[in-house]
Amino acid sequence: MTKVEDKKRLKKAAEEVADVLKSNFSGSNLNFCNELQIESSSYDGWFCSITNDTRTIPRFEVYLDFLTGKKKRQFYYGFAANEESEIKNLVDIFEKSTGKKISDTIISINDIHEQDGKFSIDEALLNKIEFPIREFYSNERQYYFGSYVIRDADPLSGIPLGEIIDFFSHFSITFEINSELEGFRGIVTHEILQRATSIVREFLACMTAKGRLRCQLCEFDPKTKVAGTSVNPRSLLDVHHKIPLFEGERNTRIEDLQLLCPTCHRFEHAKMRIK
Fold first, then answer.
1. Is residue 129 a part of any domain in this protein?
2. What's the rounded Cα separation, in Å, for the pair 57 and 31?
3. Which residue among 24, 63, 184, 204 has its CA within the 20 to 30 Å range from the CA of 157?
4. For residue 34, is it left (φ>0), alpha (ψ between -120 and 50) or beta?
5. Residue 187 included in any domain
6. Half-sphere exposure of 207 (CA within 13 A, CB side)
C-alpha cells in the first residue's frame, strides 16, 4: 500500500478509536480533538492526536509507522507529553492499578538508527519488551507511554479496541475525578443580594440568650460536635431566610429567620427551587 493510502487508513482507525473512547468515557474531562489531523511521523509514517493536552493529562495518540525500518508497519497507541513528570504520573497509576511493574527499559534516542534521513529501531528490541512501555526521544523532547501492535500481518486488519479501552480504564479516576484544576486565584465579579446584618445579629443574640443555639428542624446541637475542640459552635449553623431573598426587597423581621444546620438549610432551599 502507498503512504497516501496508509494515511487514509490511519485516519479511519483513529476515528474508530475516538468513537469508542468517547462512548466508554463519556462525562470524563478528556479533551477530545474536534477534528482529527493526520501528520507525518519521524518513522516514515503517520500519527494522529485523539485528545488534546490538559493541565494534568497528556494527549492520546495513535501511530502507523515503519518503526523497525522493515517492509511492514507497526500500530502504536498511547500517551505523549512534553514533560517527563506527566508520563511518570500515568506509569505510577498504571502500576498501582495492575500490580505490574513497568519495565525499566526505556526506548530512547540511543536505540534509534538513521539511514537516508529515515529513522528505525531494532525489531529484536521491540520483541523482547513487554508492553506497555515508556519512551523518550531527546531530539523531539517527547515522552511516551503506550503499546505497539507487532504483527506480521497488517496491524490495522483488526484494531485492538478492547486492549485500548482496557489500557484507558486504568486511568479512569484521573480522567473523571482528579484532573480538574483547583486552587488557582482569579478575579470574579458578582451581583449580590444585600442582607440585613443587624437583624441577623439580633436574631442570633436572642437565640443564644434562650439557649436555643441548635437547628430548629432536626435539633442538631453543635456543642456536642465541637466538644474538646476550639471550633465555635455557631460556625456549624446557618441563618435561613424563610422568605427567599431572590423574591425581592422587603423589611426582614426576626420571625422571618430560622437557625438551621447546613443539611437542613440546603434541604429548605431545594424545596424552594422545586416550588
1. yes
2. 9
3. 24
4. alpha
5. no
6. 23
SS3 at position 255: helix
C-alpha cell read off for 152? 506480521
- Is 192 a member of any domain? no
Find, among 20, 40, 42, the residue nearest to 30 by Cα: 20
Do 94 and 132 form a contact (C-beta atoms < 8 A)?
Answer: yes
* 7-24 pLDDT, tens digit each: 888 898 899 888 888 877
End-to-end CA distance of the chain: 66
User: Which of 117, 145, 176 lies at the terminal end of a domain, its last residue?
Assistant: 176
Contact indicator for 177, 226 with CB cutoff of 8 Å: no
Q: Tell me the pTM.
A: 0.55
C-alpha 37/C-alpha 12 separation (Å) is: 11
Examine the domain organization and report whether 74 and 172 are in the same domain: yes
Domain of residue 214: give its range. 197-274
Grouping H, G, I as helix, E, B as strand and the rest as coil, residue 66 is: coil
In a domain, 181, yes or no: no
226 vs 218: CA distance, rounded Å: 17
pLDDT in tens, 192-217: 445 566 788 888 888 888 888 999 99
The DSSP symbol for 32 reads B
Q: How far apart are CA 61 and CA 46, in angstroms?
A: 11
Three-state SS at 250 = coil
> Which of these three, 125, 147, 176, is where a domain ends?
176
Task: Please tell me whether residues 89 and 205 are part of one structural domain.
Answer: no
